[in-house]
Amino acid sequence: MKRGIDDGNATLALEKREVLIPPLALQGTLRIPANASSLVIFVHGSGSSRLSPRNIQVAEALNRSGFATLLFDLLKPREEDIVNRDLQVRMARSGYQKLLAERDRKMPPEKQQELMKLFHDIPVWQHMWFHNVQIEKNPLDLWMMQEILYQLQPDFVVETGTWRGGSALYWAYTLNGLGLEKSRVITVDIQNLNQTASTDPLWKKYVTFYQGSSTDPKIVADILKTVQGHKVVVTLDSDHSMRHVLNELHAYSPMVPSHSYLVVEDTHIDGVPTQPDAGPGPLAAVQKFLTEDEGKSFEQDLTREAFMMTFNPGGWLKKK
Questions:
Q1: What pTM was estimated for this model as a whole?
Q2: Is the pLDDT of residue 236 over 70?
Q3: What CA–CA distance (Å, rounded) separates 288 from 229?
Q4: Taking the CB of the first residue and of the last residue of the chain, which one, N or C, has fewer CB atoms within 10 A?
Q5: For domain 85-319, which CATH number applies: 3.40.50.150, 3.30.70.100, 3.40.50.720, 3.30.1330.40?
Q6: pLDDT category, 107, cuts 50, 70, 90?
Q7: Cα(170)–Cα(118) distance, rounded to whole angstroms?
Q8: Where does the pLDDT of residue 201 fall: very low under 50, low under 70, confident under 90, or very high at 90 and above?
Q9: Cα separation values, 250 from 181, 215, 223, 225, Å
Q10: If DSSP codes are grouped into helix, strand and coil, which group holds residue 271?
Q11: Cis upstream peptide for 254 (omega within 30°)
Q12: For the chain, what are the domain ranges?
């Protein structure tokens, strides 16, 4: 497949192929510019990926200098969910216990955990509508998000996991209520289920919907190009497996400026845990991310857990 790289004044012609590397059929991306002189190989293990925007940028820089590049992953898709699964699940749950203690509330940690499980098991949050569009969110988290949007006055809210479109519509109405006429919402989902939401006038004004995987390099690159240099808040609420959330963190964290937020939703799943058989999931991904170079510029903002019954414990990540 022929592709090109925008090199400022000109487009660099190159051949790009998705390849399988024997004998284990490892997935790789081969990029060959015209008149390539040699090949640089990138090998990605746990916590990294050939789809990471940063890795792609490095490869593109080498391509411009006349080097062919091969980026491949040592782990097959979803394999990382199997490797050290029990360890990651235990770490997520112990991480949640640490968060409870660090909140420094008068209520004992075990009582906080009991309330969180109870609130999740009473399925009020599964039967909520915003302007006649279903929205599966913790209402206390929605309140906290509107506080963040008021305080930051963002140019963009970027969301993964559109579903029915209720949350994207909520962001649109919040931005409109703040008088942010030029701000926009960008939302991504592999399915298009937002037919009702998309008829709303404020959806038409504020919302851009991408249908596809939230980690699709083309979609990520397009969103990055749109929001670069602007005030951005990102919220991740799509596939909740550890591997996918970690890939999202790598893809979307570069979009977040200092003092803004990257919110990883539903960390309660493997943290509390509200779904004991699930995981490793979002909280395990957060803990792994915070140990990596890309994650060291973020910190868990426990002030955003003021209502205690959040679905995102440890997931309110603030850029330093």
A1: 0.71
A2: yes
A3: 27
A4: N
A5: 3.40.50.150
A6: confident
A7: 26
A8: very high
A9: 30, 9, 14, 16
A10: helix
A11: no
A12: 2-76, 85-319
